[in-house]
Amino acid sequence: MSQERYIGADLVRIFAALLVVAFHLGFWSWANERSTPGSILQRRAEFPEVAQLTHFGWVGVEVFFMLSGFVIAFTARSSTALSFLYRRFLRLFPGAVICATITLAVALAIGWREPADLLDRYLRSASLWPYGPWIDGVYWTLGVEIAFYTLVFMLLAIGQLRRLELIMIGVGTITSLIWIVFALYHGRPSNPFRGLISSRDAQLLLLHHGMFFSVGVVIWNAIAGRFTWWRIVAVTICSIGGCVVIYPTATRDLGLELWEQASIAVWLISVLLLIAAVRFDAALSRYLGPISRQIKTGSLATYPLYLLHTVVGAAMIRVLLDAGLPRYFALAFVLIAVLLLSVAVTKWLERKLRTFLSRLLQHRAPAGEPKRDMGAPG
Q: How many CB atoms lie within 10 A of CB 166?
């Protein structure tokens, strides 16, 4: 099965984005005062009544990584190294610049940090610099995405893209087994690379998140070909490895000792959702055909939504609360507002900047290359 777009994968991407937005604005904004939204709201409002529905939403980031593995595995198959680099640049850079600029303006307006600090963070974010601090903490994932893209670019450059699945199976299973064995040895999941290299370097080397990309790559190849026993084993090991990576984040970093099972369940359910969504994509396309354009727009809008919702969303909630609006009215209004803002950025600002950059670079894509990408990188 080969096609340019999977509406099922678009739906999973929208689901993952909504999970992350709900987590940052509905939970992290009051559960952790040191977080980005928490530092902006400063305990102006809490939403404990919905905590059980929002606390696990951060796992949507891991789902984004899985989707990136899936999407890149099939969109890169007819690309050259240069065309792949060009397309990835035009996918990431315009949205990063636009969203970082909007975030900078909002951060300056509310006096969130010193202007010099914000400018430094802005330049790091707009330039896709892999090391923070960024204008918004969510930009950390773009460096991880670029690390994965770099591997794909190198394979395209030497004409060995067909080995991507084998390499990612190796990366995913080896890192998963390291995490699993380390957890069994210590009796509790924890980071096996702590103290050896910095956490950020481990992320950029795909030691933390390689298994998530691997699951997506293998699922694409299984759908395009067939589910062999070794692919099933690879997905199983990498999915378990993902659980072991997720567990310490849910317990130590987020302090959710009683809820780590929910975070793990969301990850495993998302794997099954992606498999089912692309397996029955034809049926979904027939059923959802009348709104397929809206679903595509929603999927593309997940990228600016991801980059905008934390600082801009928290700032909007803060303004509304200071104006005396009820907390849940403010939360609901802002959720709708950031969704609409993200669609506007996608349909107008991103498109215009991407067109300008494309003409500036005077690039013409090779005939037969896929014409569209599927939504946001993780």
A: 13
The token pair at 44 is 């102006």
**Is residue 374's pLDDT more than 50?**
no
Mean residue pLDDT of the chain comes to 92
Boundaries of domain holding 23: 7-361
Dist CA 98 CA 58 (whole Å): 24
Residue among 58, 70, 76, 66 nearest 262 (CA): 58
Whether 1 maps to a domain, the answer reads no
Give the pair of three-digit tokens for residue 337: 């507002």
> What pLDDT digit, counting tens, does each position of 105-137 carry?
999 999 999 999 999 999 999 999 999 999 999
Residue 184 region by backbone torsions, left for phi larger than 0, else alpha for psi between -120 and 50, else beta = alpha
Count CB neighbours of 4 within 10 A. Answer: 11
In a domain, 378, yes or no: no
Cβ contacts of 204 within 8 Å, gap of 6 or more: 130, 143, 144, 147
Domains held by the chain: number: 1
CA distances from 38 to 44, 117, 129, 232, 313 (A): 9, 18, 24, 41, 11
In Å, the largest CA–CA distance within the chain is: 61
In a domain, 256, yes or no: yes
- In a domain, residue 377? The reply is no
